[in-house]
Amino acid sequence: MQPYFLPYIGYWQLMNVVDKYVIYDDVNYINKGWINRNNILLNKQSFLFTLNLLGRSQNKLINKISVDTNQTKLIKTFEIAYKKAPFFDDTFHFVKHIFEYNDKNLANFVGNSIIKIANYLGLKTKFIYSSEINKDCSLKGQEKILNICNVLQATEYINAIGGIELYSKEMFKEQGIELKFIKSKPIEYKQFNNEFVPWLSILDIMMFNPVDEIRKMLDNYELL
């Protein structure tokens, strides 16, 4: 999967269920995607935050783009949004530590945040950057994914539910790989005393829930 910044619970469920998670960093950046932005709860509603980038272009690979310098502003926004949340102190300190990461390469910066949060949540998954895999880079789309699976000797490939229209179970089966898609079940928790706003960044879940409760949420899915 592409390296998404502080993504929603579905991606952490995917990370938790697999043995190896490939951070797909040597594909083109997508404008208005989730690589450098997500939603938090602010003033009782969903608020889109964005990590500013240098040299952003859909003609560049994710690992050829750099993170810009609006981290201080984002940290302040998170503080305003969640300073009264029950798990604010630990989560806010943790997020500030993520923003202090010195490597400003977009893929490495976001990848580091993924790995740090995965460790915090107790995930045992092995993370691999796709750029480090000896694969056939001339391939595209599904064929490239299949090539990566074969290089890693995978017998099962699990993708987010959004990929259900992109990949063929028959094509994977022909190469001895079982293709599945993960679909999150509805998850709800207390957000202050507000009407619940679903599918926000993992940051929101961490602000309102202890790790043991988040671990239970990681198992709240179905494989299709």
Structural class: alpha/beta
- Give the mean pLDDT: 95
Tell me the fraction of residues in β-strands, as a range: 15-25%
- In whole angstroms, how far apart are the ends? 18 Å
Helix content: 25-40%
The strand count comes to: 9
Shape: globular
**Backbone CA Rg:** 18 Å
**Unreliable runs:** none
Walkthrough of the structure:
The protein has 224 residues and is of the alpha/beta class. It is built from eight helices and nine strands. The strands form four sheets. It has a three-stranded mixed beta sheet. Helix 2 (71-82) packs antiparallel against helix 3 (88-99). It is globular.
Task: Give a short synopsis of this structure.
The protein is an alpha/beta fold and 224 residues long. Helices cover 36% and strands 17% of the residues. The protein has one domain.
Task: Name its key features.
single chain, 224 residues, alpha/beta, two-stranded parallel sheet, 17% strand, globular
